[in-house]
């Protein structure tokens, strides 16, 4: 997207000047405004696609009380990671860095020993993986999780793309088996 925005001035040169001498260059503000409009429109489209295709399939059933509240919370976490992968990756990298700093302290060493082999940690890892957090990377330089991009590219290259999208559409319309057909 950034490359496209940088190419705009060359792709769409300014019209010739009224006096016929050369071309006028658009004002810098006009280019910035055009880039901002393109960015805002792409965000609007992303949000619209997300809300129409992914969010309805993952929305919890009505009455999120008791045991039903846990899946609702997990779905919400999953949606946040999918909708904001860059922010999720940044938060994950910050948590990893903080955890490593804590692990280097005497108290952190004690906690690591106490949690080693813990059933709670094992079960927590199952939840972490089920929600899709395992796509986040343990790389402080990662901006967007590569698993997220790989999934998008794999879907785009899939010969069954239309069926997959139809399944998402069916799930969005309330047909929970739509994606499984």
Write the layout of secondary structure elements.
Blueprint: H1 2-11, H2 28-58, H3 69-83, H4 85-103, H5 106-115, H6 119-131, H7 146-157, H8 161-172
Over the alpha carbons, how many angstroms does the gyration radius reach?
23 Å
Helix content: 55-70%
What is the molecular shape?
extended
Mean pLDDT: 75
Characterise the protein shown here.
The protein contains eight helices and no strands. Helix 2 (about 30-60) packs antiparallel against helix 3 (about 70-85), helix 3 (about 70-85) packs across helix 4 and helix 4 (about 85-105) crosses helix 5 (about 105-115). With about 180 residues, it is mainly alpha-helical. The chain is about 65% helix and about 0% strand.
Brief summary of the model shown:
With 181 residues, this protein is mainly alpha-helical. The protein is built from eight helices and no strands. Residues 175-181 have low confidence and may be disordered.
Provide key terms for this protein.
single chain; mainly alpha; disordered C terminus; 181 residues; 8 helices
